[in-house]
Design brief:
nine-stranded mixed sheet, 9 strands, 350 residues, single chain, alpha/beta, globular
C-alpha cells in the first residue's frame, strides 16, 4: 500500500515538473504589421493577456504609413516582452523572416495583426505539444466579421499524425495558415517564406510540416480570423493573387519524387484547384483594374475546365464541387449567389 502511495506521489511530482517546464518555455510570437492601426489594439490585447506569460512578442512594422509605427513603439515601452523592428515595406514574407531571424524562444507562433486569439491559446497548444511529444500543435480558427464573434463550443477531439500522414492531413484539411500552429523553433531552421509573394503560407507551411516527426491537432477554435474588407483575403482579385498558381507549382515540384501516391495526388489536386480558388475570389470580390477582367476570367475558366474531371474525382467537399460546376457552366449565377451569401454573413455579424 505504501509502495502504491509512493508511486502516486512520484507520478504527481513528475507531472508537476512537466507543468513547470511548460510554464517556463518561451514562445516567440511574430506579428507582421502593415497599416493595421485600426485593428492592432485588439490583436495585441489578445496576445499580451495570454495565460502563458513567458512570451517574446516581435512586432515587425513593414513600412506602415498609418499610426502603426507609433503604436508599436508604445507597446515596446509599456511591456518589456515586446520587441519592435521597423523596416521598409517588403511584404508579409519579408516581415515574418525578419521576425524569425531575431526570435529567441523555444517555440514560434504567428499572429496576423488584424486577427486575435483566445486568452489560453498558447498555454493550450504548449500542453498539447508536451503531452503528445509533438513538434507542432495545431488548433482551429473561425472567421469573425466583428469583435462580437462568439466561438463555437465543441467536444474536444485531439489527433496525432506522424510521417507522411502529417502532409496528407495538411492537404486534406485544406487549412494553410501558419498562424494556426505552434512550432518548435528548430522546425523553421531551414525554412523561409518566399519574399515578394503572397500565399506564402502554403509552401512554407508544407516545408515546416515536412520537418516534423509528429503533429498534434485539436478541433478547439482558438484563432479569430478577421474577415477584413480591405485585407488580402477580401480584396478584389489582383496580379499578386496569381502567386497561388506559383505555390501550386512548387508543391508539385516538392512532391514529384515523394514515393507516396496519395500525397502526390493531393499535391496535384492543390495545384489544379488553385485556378478555381482564384476564380471564386474573383466571383465574390470582383477584379481589380490591374487585370483585364474578361481575359482573366477566360484564362481561369479554361484551366478549371481542363482539370474539371480530375477535381470532381478528388478529395474535395461536395459543396465545393457544386461551386466548381457552377463556375464552369453558369458563372453569372454563381456570382449572384456569392454576393447574397456575403450579404447574409455580414448581416449576421452586425
Amino acid at each position: 500500500m505504501r509502495h502504491s502511495s509512493q508511486q502516486a506521489l512520484l507520478a504527481e511530482g513528475e507531472a508537476r515538473v512537466a507543468k513547470e517546464e511548460i510554464i517556463m518555455a518561451k514562445i516567440s510570437v511574430i506579428i507582421p504589421i502593415y497599416n493595421t492601426s485600426a485593428y492592432l489594439k485588439r490583436c495585441m490585447d489578445s496576445v499580451l493577456m495570454q495565460t502563458h506569460t513567458d512570451l517574446e512578442i516581435i512586432l515587425i512594422n513593414d513600412g506602415s504609413t498609418d499610426q502603426s509605427p507609433e503604436l508599436c513603439d508604445q507597446y515596446a515601452l509599456a511591456d518589456q516582452r515586446v520587441r519592435v523592428i521597423h523596416q521598409a515595406n517588403g511584404g508579409l514574407s519579408a516581415a515574418r523572416n525578419a521576425g524569425m531571424a531575431i526570435a529567441t524562444g523555444e517555440y514560434l507562433g504567428f499572429v496576423d495583426s488584424d486577427d486575435w486569439i483566445e486568452p489560453d491559446t498558447y498555454e493550450y497548444l504548449l500542453e498539447l505539444l508536451t503531452a503528445n511529444q509533438a513538434d507542432i500543435a495545431e488548433a482551429r480558427h473561425e472567421v469573425a466579421y466583428s469583435i462580437n464573434h462568439q466561438m463555437s463550443e465543441v467536444a474536444e477531439v485531439v489527433e496525432v499524425f506522424e510521417g507522411d500522414a502529417i502532409l496528407i492531413r495538411y492537404f486534406e484539411h485544406n487549412e494553410f495558415g501558419v498562424w494556426l500552429r505552434l512550432y518548435k523553433r528548430e522546425i523553421f531552421t531551414d525554412v523561409l517564406f518566399d519574399v515578394g509573394r503572397i500565399n506564402e503560407d502554403v509552401v512554407a507551411g508544407y516545408l515546416a510540416l515536412r520537418n516534423a516527426d509528429r503533429l498534434v491537432t485539436s478541433n478547439q477554435p482558438k484563432v479569430y480570423y478577421f474577415s477584413n474588407p480591405v485585407g488580402i483575403s477580401e480584396s478584389p482579385l489582383r496580379k499578386r493573387d496569381m502567386d497561388l498558381l506559383f505555390a501550386g507549382e512548387r508543391l508539385d515540384e516538392l512532391t514529384a519524387d515523394c514515393g507516396n501516391e496519395r500525397l502526390r495526388k493531393l499535391a496535384l489536386t492543390k495545384k489544379h484547384r488553385s485556378p478555381f480558388t482564384l476564380l471564386v475570389k474573383m466571383t465574390l470580390f470582383g477584379c481589380s483594374t490591374e487585370l483585364d477582367i474578361k481575359q482573366t476570367k477566360r484564362e481561369l475558366q479554361a484551366e478549371v475546365r481542363r482539370h474539371y474531371g480530375f477535381l470532381m474525382a478528388s478529395h474535395m467537399p461536395l459543396n465545393r464541387k457544386i461551386l466548381l460546376t457552377g463556375c464552369v457552366i453558369c458563372y453569372p449565377l454563381v456570382r449572384l449567389a456569392g454576393a447574397a451569401y456575403l450579404a447574409i454573413m455580414r448581416a449576421r455579424a452586425r
